[in-house]
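Backbones bend. Our protein:
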Amino acid sequence: MITYRMQDKNRSLAALLGPEQQYSFPMGNQDELVRHGVSGMASIHELAAYLAVMAIEAGTPVLVRIEGPLSDDTPCDEAMGEHLTLPTSAEIITDDAEFFDLVGELVDLHWEQGIAFEQLRDIAGERLAYI
């Protein structure tokens, strides 16, 4: 499975490939919600909407494409399309300026105008159709 995620630039891609580090930690550090697998979304536009609604931030964000089998664990945000992958490969997508500009716009649409996740996902799908 191919999934996309945002992470801090300082987290090495090699760390994503190490089985001992393939865990997802929910916001708020609730230990009971730690899941086996690296969190990601099946498409760029789903990731953009997810980041906007969940208000997820990174110090120096990068967009990452990961590939590998799905984990047997259940993602915390499965209803929003989150997947847990056990990466066998990972690469930074360097042409990400348009993506992050769009995420900023989606944040405003969601938090200032109340636009729901599904609508944000559709907007992102139209704007990022080339990816």
In short: DSSP finds four helices and seven strands in the chain. The first helix runs from residue 13 to 17. Residues 45 and 122 are 8 Å apart (CA to CA).
